[in-house]
């Protein structure tokens, strides 16, 4: 369904202006091993419910930000600018 | 006197030999072929009703002109089973094999079609590249020589491809399961899977707990959710895909027409309606609501191909959920580290055409405990082993 996303820089804009960057996850340490890395590269949380996600405002400010969305209804909660820890993910 | 029901309703027993989760074509076909192998103490659990999910929302296209040898062999088995299905199930599934055309609008697209045609022919699947003069003979209404932004340079012609009545397929399989002694339970939602000592022990449903040593995850849309109940994460992200249908027109379009450049595919049903689909939405979601943006895009692209359809009305639109894997191929087989959990999931945008082959081979796997060779390439372990089955070029917007 179509919906609007509130960009922290630009305010409410239609979803078509944004690129979906997937659920927020923690990146493993480089030495974590093949099994952990394969899991990180391929598996997805794919939550049917509220999920914290990366979004990129490609049509305007070109900023990445994090927002929570209920994937069943596409209702979004206010976006946040990522902190430095999450920005590594 | 009311007509005889297609299948009976039953009390849910407290144990079954096999529990299949998902009352779509994959789950029902698995249960049907299990029964044919003599395993009849089987329950198919469907959260809504038979065919509610992807089996009732797809655009009903059947074909086998894929790109990889693994994919081609698998989908070819499915086409052959579909060809025999009306006789097998004694029900008219209205399979019309009137040909499938994948269009190329640039040189890179043409070389992609040539590669697919070569692989198809090597595996004895009827498929070849044809050029505008021959395309025009098959589909005179197509805008081949007029002004357009994306001229058609060639097409991959796949004569055995076509369309089928998807509702009839799931109804007929459900009746077949019932007739052979299996049970179909609608309105039965799985809320948990109990695991003990590395093996499946039971499933928990809204109608009670069911003991079983074999669970088959044959769901679409909620495959990740079901699999997580057993502690098995999947490489799947769920995206909606939208489709729409126009008012009925006189029959004019025999072939299924697909253009990945234009993000559109179209066929004409036996009732005369045009069924159109597009690329899936580019963000993950479980929402089934349609968008105006899809309709505008689908109409724009369809008119590039068929300017003559400018005044045709759209009757309705809908969305289905597509479980996308990283390589655009499905995941079939036994869970690697959990005894008794089987899956036929990750069916993306290509699940309906594969239902019979998936059910046939999954049933063989469960009955014999041995993975049939045609299933081996699609194991969940292929991702960690870096043995992907890359079908994006042949699966994306080519239904």
Topology overview:
The complex is a heterodimer of chains A (89) and B (399).
Chain A (H helix, E strand, L loop, with lengths): L3 E4 L3 E4 L4 E5 L10 H9 L7 E7 L7 E7 L13 H4 L2
Antiparallel strand pairs in A: 1-2, 3-4, 4-5
Chain B lengths: L17 E4 L3 H12 L5 E4 L8 H4 L3 E2 L6 H21 L10 E5 L2 H16 L5 E3 L1 H7 L15 E5 L3 E2 L2 H14 L3 E3 L4 E7 L2 E7 L2 E4 L2 E4 L5 H7 L7 E10 L9 E4 L4 E5 L5 E5 L13 H14 L8 E11 L6 E4 L6 E5 L9 H14 L23 H4 L4
Parallel strand pairs in B: 1-2, 1-12, 2-8, 4-14, 12-19
Antiparallel strand pairs in B: 3-7, 4-6, 5-6, 9-10, 10-11, 13-16, 13-17, 14-15, 15-16, 18-19
Give an account of the 3D structure:
The complex is a heterodimer of chains A (89) and B (399). By secondary structure, chain A is an alpha+beta fold. Chain A has helices at residues 34-42, 84-87, and strands spanning 4-7, 11-14, 19-23, 50-56, 64-70. Chain A has one domain (4-88): Folate-binding superfamily (Folate-binding fold). Chain A has two helices and five strands; from the N terminus they run βββαββα. A three-stranded antiparallel beta sheet of chain A has the order 3-4-5, with no helix packed on it. Chain A has a two-stranded antiparallel sheet with strand order 1-2. The longest helix of chain A has 9 residues, at 34-42. The two termini of chain A are 28 Å apart. The mean pLDDT of chain A is 90. Chain B has 399 residues and is an alpha/beta fold. Chain B has two domains: 18-59 and 166-235 and 327-394, FAD/NAD(P)-binding domain, CATH 3.50.50; 96-163 and 237-322, 2-Layer Sandwich (D-Amino Acid Oxidase, Chain A, domain 2), CATH 3.30.9.10. Helices cover 28% and strands 24% of the residues of chain B. Chain B has helices spanning 25-36, 54-57, 69-89, 107-122, 132-138, 166-179, 223-229, 292-305, 355-368, 392-395, and strands at 18-21, 42-45, 61-62, 100-104, 128-130, 154-158, 162-163, 183-185, 190-196, 199-205, 208-211, 214-217, 237-246, 256-259, 264-268, 274-278, 314-324, 331-334, 341-345. In chain B, a hairpin with a 6-residue loop joins strand 18 and strand 19 (341-345). The longest helix of chain B has 21 residues, at 69-89. The radius of gyration of chain B is 21 Å and the shape is globular. The mean pLDDT of chain B is 95. The chains are: A alpha+beta (89), B alpha/beta (399). Chain A binds chain B through residues 1-2, 15-16, 18-20, 22, 34-35, 38-39, 41-46, 48, 71-74, and chain B through 222, 224-225, 233-238, 282-287, 289-293, 326, 383-384.
